[in-house]
């Protein structure tokens, strides 16, 4: 584990293939997730010769809990800072859920650095919800039962194929949610504004090569394919739908995700 120093605290990240000279890849998970959800992707891309950094969000995993801003924009600034820390050259960024919003913002803000983006189950705009759904969410997010409820919800989002090591990953999530200060940071991330749509509305597509990957059984959306089509349209990217997969393609279907990212890297390097 490594740490990136930011003005308010440190961001934890794992580095796969640190000695490699291939493309730098930055991976950003979603809210109430741990960086280890990218364990298969990081290892496979490193085996292909790339240098892969997988970060935790602010207050998540092993990142510090001292931050005030927990938005997707804040995560974008951390991803950019991490890319600069690792050399600052043309970078491919991969984001899941809220992390997909973060790498989209990064592509808009730093077109000189972010050459390609892969959006996994992207959360680029809030899903529509009823008053009853919002009330239920408030109840579920109330301690002392909230850490267990969120861990159960995390498991439910894995509709379809169960990843190898899923039980250990669930325990990481439970452990992460137990301390009060860390849970406050996670709660701030869940309840905070999702700002990616601010960059998307009224803007041209980002310059970065883009691909959207969505699980066919993603429970976050009533119609995952329709949401994925919209996401692909606003970033000017192609769309890959993944069977037997919910909200976490990076861990549920790395056999699909790794080749998609590899092809994106090849397109980025061909256009450099």
UniProtKB/TrEMBL annotation:
Domain AB hydrolase-1, residue spans: 25-258
Domain of life: Bacteria
PANTHER family for this protein: HYDROLASE ALPHA/BETA FOLD FAMILY, PEROXISOMAL MEMBRANE PROTEIN LPX1
InterPro entries assigned: AB_hydrolase_1, AB_hydrolase_fold, Carboxylesterase_BioH, Epox_hydrolase-like
UniProt cross-references to Gene3D superfamilies, sorted A to Z: alpha/beta hydrolase
Record protein name field: Pimeloyl-ACP methyl ester carboxylesterase
């Amino acid at each position: 584990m490594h740490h990136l120093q930011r003005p308010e605290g440190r961001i934890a990240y794992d580095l796969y293939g640190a000695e490699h000279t291939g493309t730098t890849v930055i991976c950003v998970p979603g809210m109430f997730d741990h960086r280890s959800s990218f364990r298969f992707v990081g290892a496979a891309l490193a085996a292909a010769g790339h240098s892969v950094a997988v970060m935790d969000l602010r207050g998540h995993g092993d990142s510090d809990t001292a931050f005030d801003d927990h938005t997707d924009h804040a995560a974008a600034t951390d991803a950019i800072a991490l890319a600069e820390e690792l050399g600052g050259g043309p970078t491919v960024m991969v984001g899941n859920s809220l992390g997909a919003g973060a790498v989209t913002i990064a592509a808009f803000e730093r077109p000189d650095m972010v050459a390609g983006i892969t959006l996994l189950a992207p959360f680029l705009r809030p899903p529509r919800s009823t008053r009853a759904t919002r009330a239920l969410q408030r109840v579920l997010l109330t301690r002392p039962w909230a850490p267990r409820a969120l861990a159960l919800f995390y498991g439910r989002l894995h509709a379809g194929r169960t990843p190898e090591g899923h039980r250990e990953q669930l325990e990481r999530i439970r452990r992460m949610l137990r301390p009060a200060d860390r849970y406050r940071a996670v709660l701030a991330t869940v309840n905070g504004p999702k700002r990616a749509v601010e960059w998307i509305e009224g803007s041209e597509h980002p310059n970065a090569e883009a691909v959207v990957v969505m699980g066919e059984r993603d429970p976050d959306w009533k119609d995952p394919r329709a949401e994925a089509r919209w996401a692909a349209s606003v970033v000017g990217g192609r769309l890959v739908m993944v069977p037997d997969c919910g909200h976490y393609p990076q861990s549920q279907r790395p056999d699909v995700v790794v080749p998609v990212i590899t092809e994106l890297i090849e397109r980025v390097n061909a256009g450099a």
